[in-house]
Amino acid sequence: MPIDQRHLGRRYGPYQFTVGLEHLRDFAAAVGGGVPGRVFATAPGQAHPWTWDEAAAAASPYGSLIAPPGFAATFAIQPFSAACVDPELGINVLRLLHGGQDLELLSVIRPGDLLTTSGEITRLQERSGLEFLEVSTSTVNQRGETVVRATWTAIIRG
Amino acid sequence: MKKATDYAVGDTFTAVREVDPYRPIYYAAASGDFNPIHIDPSIGRLAGHQGVILQGMCTFAWLADACAAYLDDPGRVRRVAARFTKPVQVGDVLTFQGRCAGLDGGRLRLEVSATNQRGEEVLKGACAEALLPADDAAVEGRG
After folding, report:
1. What is the DSSP string of chain B?
2. Residue B96 domain-assigned?
3. For residue A28, what are the CA distances in angstroms to A68, A104, B67, B86?
């Protein structure tokens, strides 16, 4: 059954998230071909050193580790994932696919940053037997600067 | 470190990533995305796949990292976008082939294709934008 259009504009959040140094390094390991964690962990062979090697990052123009762009998935996804399991929307998650992603990064993210993400449903559309759910999110840091804007699109197969 | 003059329209770059059996689990641990479709092969099959599928945002992070590697600076990436067109499964080998498609002021536009080992596109419309450092942009402006 199609999602009721009355949910257009439905809001999720705010969600708070503190960026941890070990979390950044774990993310770099997981994405960069290494093993995250503190047990049997291995370094990422395919991540930029400024995202996991503290010595290299200290000598970089940033002076500390910075998050790679993909790290935004760890916090900015929350309004989208909340919408996907929202009982009011009634989506069967087994029919759900991540259809598309647009991520705008306005400033670098560092360990210790306190991020707050909110989002809302900006599109509900049915097309050729598929349903599209779009959630737009915005993330601000502890200084009130917008650091990430993102559009998350789910496709629900009929 | 690269300077603005080190980038040119037509530059190309390539990155290859392999989906080893633990990759969806490692990515789940690091990202917090423990959707069972990425963890439990029986749930993956229930959803119509051969087993677990990789988180789309892991493929997306690989796309972003391929661009960051070309830029030699993850902090310069200002936008990344793509549509996911085919599920990525364990055992897949993805090749990201990028091209510098535009250079306007201090802003670079990159276009990327992402294909699996069978040559099927797993992303469509993949692109990124990057901002060059202010000093470099100023130099370019004077030129």
Report:
1. ---GGG--TT-EEEEEEE--TTHHHHHHHHH----GGGT-HHHHHHTTSSS-B--HHHHHHHHHHHHHHHHT-GGGEEEEEEEE-S--BTT-EEEEEEEEEEEETTEEEEEEEEE-TTS-EEEEEEEEEEE--HHHHHHHHH-
2. yes
3. 8, 19, 15, 24
Q: Which of B17, B31, B62 sits opposite A27 (nearest CB)?
A: B31
B3: which chain A residues are within 8 Å (Cβ-Cβ)?
none
Matching residue, tokens 């062979």: A45
> What is the phi/psi pair of residue A31, to 5°?
-85, -30
For residue range A130-157, what is the model confidence (pLDDT) as tens digits?
A: 999 999 999 999 999 999 999 999 999 9
Residue A72 burial (CB count, 10 A)? 28
For residues A77 and A111, give the distance between their C-alpha atoms in angstroms, rounded to a whole number: 19
The residue segments making up the domain with residue B135 are 9-21+54-142
The neighbour count for residue B7, using CB atoms within 10 Å, is: 18
Amino acid at position B139, single letter: V
* ipTM of this complex prediction, to 2 decimal places: 0.97
Report the predicted TM-score, pTM, of the whole model to 2 decimal places.
0.95
Question: Quick check: A74 contacting B, CB < 8 Å?
Answer: yes
A97 and B80 within 8 Å at the Cβ level: the answer is no
* Residue range(s) in chain A whose domain bears CATH number 3.10.129.10: 1-19+67-158
- CATH number given to A1-19+67-158: 3.10.129.10
The residue in chain A having the minimum alpha-carbon distance to the alpha carbon of residue B83 is A100
